[in-house]
Design goal:
The chain is α+β, with helices and mostly antiparallel strands. The chain is about 40% helix and about 25% strand. The strands form five sheets. It has a four-stranded mixed sheet with strand order 1-2-5-8, with no helix packed on it. A hairpin with a 2-residue loop joins strand 14 and strand 15. Helix 3 crosses helix 4. The longest helix has about 70 residues. It is elongated. The protein starts with 7 loop residues before the first strand and ends in a 17-residue tail after the last helix.
Length: about 450
């Protein structure tokens, strides 16, 4: 990229223009004048021709007693230097000169269109993993920045243009970019939680974050607009002893974590297995108890038929024994209630017990004029039962005054003995027969 070139002119008046193809900043000089030869290189005649292409800006710098002043002319422009586009020059020269006397000015052309790229490389430096701060790994970084000029006034303010060279300017920028990049990459694993083993895969994210930090810095220090920062590579020195030691420590840590996870999984499995074993064992015990009770009741039931023929002290041989029959009926009622409890318990063992429904949740009532009571036994509801069925349940002992019943129209469940409609059921047992012999004396 050319920075400075020779000016071209002809006759008494100057033709001021930039013919460079690739440049960032270019200083114009009258034809035949070398750099910093005499003050004549800054002697410009009022009325000279000025040519500025599209995408260029030309700046006239005047050094006065009260400081440096500038005129900024943005292309495209082609005219003589005598118009209102040069307000500072008009005040300096005045109309008395008539374009014959020269004035002192440095003329710079700035390229506003081109993007300028600077590559940078940072040799190996150490970074630490957030998990193992005592172990560092050497890494190297390569990348580039792309910038352009947008604020010419800021650029002129921050840079000495008289002896400006692109090489020196690039070296200054590379030094700043390398310093900030090294600092950011060093702290990035800890601040961003990125493992050193994964840092090469995070180049895009690191480039974007670093660009945000450098944009304002390069604008404030050099007056340039940072368009892109691209990290091409973050290279880990995998042949170094530090990396090999770090890799060994990482693998050992992963092995320990895997063993801990395995132990926790085994503990959970044992707990689940023990819970399942206890549940099965509990069901087995309950089922075994029911089987034992069933056997006892079966034996008792087999003896019920003999009780009617038992001689209860009347000395009458094997005839019908009313007392034995009554006792058998009483025992049968008790056995029926016990069998009902056993069946209910069996249901609880083999399947989940459904919660009793509230009266408002019951099924649709039976047809009108039919008594239909629901019965609650151990939290389970049964029915509906009509009066005849309830009578049979009273006789078998399944329904007692303390049993809870409900029917459509009742606000709550009620004990059977408190329901007036059922009072006759519990008083319907016939009185003893006149022919029944007296009860035997107690032993």
């Amino acid at each position: 990229m050319g920075l400075f070139g020779k000016g071209k002119g002809g006759g008494l008046m100057n033709v001021i223009r930039c013919d460079e193809q690739d440049y960032l900043v270019w200083k114009w000089r009258p034809e035949g004048q070398d750099v910093n030869s005499t003050s004549r290189e800054n002697a410009i005649r009022y009325g000279s021709t000025l040519h500025i292409k599209d995408g260029e800006m030309c700046v006239f710098v005047y050094k006065q007693k009260d400081g440096t002043l500038q005129d900024y002319i943005v292309g495209p422009y082609e005219d003589t230097i005598k118009t209102a586009n040069f307000p500072v020059l008009t005040n300096i020269v005045g109309a008395a000169f008539g374009g014959e006397s020269p004035f002192q000015a440095e003329i710079y052309f700035f390229n506003l269109q081109s993007n300028n790229q600077i590559k940078f490389a940072i040799p190996y430096f150490d970074i630490a993993d957030p998990r193992f701060l005592d172990f560092t790994v050497p890494v190297a970084v390569r990348g580039s920045i792309t910038f352009n000029l947008t604020d010419i006034k800021q650029f002129i303010k921050l840079n000495r243009l008289t002896d400006f060279t692109l090489e020196q300017f690039s070296n200054q920028i590379k030094s700043v970019v390398a310093k900030y990049t090294k600092s950011f990459v060093t702290n990035c694993p800890i601040e961003q939680g990125i493992s050193v083993l994964q840092i090469e895969r995070k180049i895009t994210e690191i480039s974007d974050m670093l660009q945000q930090k450098l944009s304002s810095q390069l604008s404030d220090d050099f007056g340039i607009n940072l368009k892109r920062l691209d990290i091409d590579a973050i290279e880990v020195d995998k042949e170094s002893e530090d990396y090999q030691e770090f890799l060994h420590v990482t693998k050992e840590q992963q092995k320990i974590q895997a063993e801990q996870i395995g132990r926790r999984a085994n503990i959970d499995t044992d707990i689940y297995a023990e819970q399942g074993h206890l549940a099965v064992e509990s069901q087995y015990i309950q089922a075994h108890a029911i089987n034992q009770q069933t056997k006892v009741l079966e034996a008792a039931a087999n003896n019920l038929g003999q009780m009617g023929a038992m001689n209860m002290g009347d000395g009458g041989g094997m005839g019908m024994n009313p007392a034995g029959m009554m006792m058998g009926m009483a025992m049968g009622g008790a056995m029926g209630g016990q069998m009902a409890n056993m069946m209910n318990g069996m249901n609880q063992v083999q399947q989940p017990v459904s919660q009793p429904q509230m009266p408002s949740q019951q099924m649709a009532p039976p047809p009108p004029n039919t008594v239909a009571y629901m019965m609650s036994v151990n939290g389970q509801q049964y029915g509906p039962y009509n009066m005849q069925q309830l009578q049979q349940m009273v006789q078998s002992g399944q329904l007692t005054p303390q049993s809870y019943l409900w029917k459509q129209g009742m606000a709550n469940w009620e004990m059977a003995g408190n329901i007036q409609e059922l009072a006759t059921l519990f008083g319907a047992v016939p009185p003893p027969s006149p022919n029944m012999p007296p009860m035997p004396p107690s032993m």
